Amino acid sequence: MNLLKSPLHSKYIDSNAKLVNFAGWEMPISFSGLIREHESVRSSAGFFDISHMGVISIKGINPKDYIQKFFPTNLYSFSQGQGLYTIMLNEKGGIIDDLIIYDIGIQENDITELLLIVNASRYEVDFRWIKNNLNTDQISITNFKKEKVLFALQGKNSFNLFENWIQSSISHIPNFGCEYKTFEYISSKEKIFVSKTGYTGENGLEILLSKKAGINLWDFLISKNVEPCGLGARDTLRLEAGMHLYGQDINEETSPYEAGLGWLVHLENNHEFFGRSFLEEQARLGIQKKLVGLFIEGKAIGRKGCQVFKGEENIGTITSGSWSPTNQKAIAFAYIKTSHAFISNEVQILIRGKKFKGVITKRAFYKKNY
Questions:
Q1: List of residues 6+ apart from 8 with CB closer than 8 A
Q2: One domain for residues 62 and 30
Q3: What are the respective helix, strand and coil percentages of the chain, to the nearest 5?
Q4: Non-local CB neighbours of 198 within 8 Å, separated by 6+ positions
């Protein structure tokens, strides 16, 4: 199988990264080591090449009018220069993908452009779903990333580092805000997309730029002793921060209410969207299972598929689990029967034939304090 490679793949080789197959891409699982990379992001800053992720451009006059039906969230709740975290649903209210939509405003000829940054494993599914259901020739849908680099710089020092690199301030960009512009110090010709978003629970930036500029940024950060980070630290950081991983914690069989994403469903907005009737029914009748957080006592780690018990009753299944470097405990997400899904409820997790005590918690195990 020929794996896809990031434009920065040579940097992995130069850095002796440990590489794995992730969603058809050859990606680094770690560079200096998961714990070191995780702690670098928590204490100062670290950076990730996330060029495996998809970037879809949707352009037209008032494009939100045409794509609103794909999303349960009101797309007019954000405007130019802002991003919106949301979910795309199928007819049964199942989650096709979770993603961020950015409004980069009018680019040319009164044409507004939206960027959708989507999960690597779902790019083709998402693209096809939108294209097949747009039912209009007034809107164009294209691959915006092409040969570009998608970069994530995360941690409390990330803003200062980026400003040092571009020799310009980004203090005017709000949290979850974005810009698509040239930075003269880097290039007078190339537009760079930058957003104050991320997947770690820290302040951070996600940056879309050319291969040349991406290599420049990588080398600059290395010169500042910033750690390159792999998928291993990305997973422990997002799990601590209570963020979902598509394919494990959410999929086309889970609904937003079950996944704790009901806040993204704006039934009060009265717009039609795929899965609306199903979710209206679920909102009325309630859910049978719910995604919760778990602290697990001891050193055993509850991985995906481990069963959760209350006494002799099997009440749920773990979807994600890891050791938390920040909490120095094993943590996990699990879908639990709603009747048992309350904070501080003590349960047992079956790990390699032995039961370990667990306590149900809020899904976010970490919150930044700056």
A1: 49, 51, 149, 211, 214, 215, 218
A2: no
A3: 25, 35, 40
A4: 152, 154, 204, 205, 206
Token pair 């978003």: residue: 197
Q: Amino acid letter at 342?
A: F
DSSP label of 98: E
- Please tell me the distance from the alpha carbon of residue 160 to that of residue 162, in angstroms, as a whole number: 5
**Residue 268 burial (10 A CB sphere; 0-12, 13-18, 19+):** exposed
* The two structure tokens encoding residue 60: 């037209």
> 34 and 96 in one domain?
no
Mean pLDDT of successive 10-residue stretches along the chain, which has 370 residues: 95 97 97 98 98 98 97 98 98 98 92 98 98 95 97 98 98 98 96 98 98 98 98 98 98 98 97 98 98 96 98 98 98 98 98 97 96
Write down the pTM of the prediction.
Answer: 0.97
For residue 300, the enclosing domain spans 288-361
Residue 170 and residue 315 in one domain: no
Are the C-beta atoms of 8 and 25 separated by less than 8 Å?
A: no
Give the torsion through C-alpha atoms of 352, 355, 356, 357, to 10 deg. Answer: 160
Q: What are the phi and psi torsion angles at 296 (to 5°)?
A: -115, 130
What interhelical angle do 34-43 and 231-240 show, nearest 10?
50
From residue 24, how far is each of 3, 137, 210, 251, 364 by CA, in Å? 5, 32, 22, 18, 29
Mark out the alpha helices in 228-345 (DSSP H runs): 231-240, 276-285
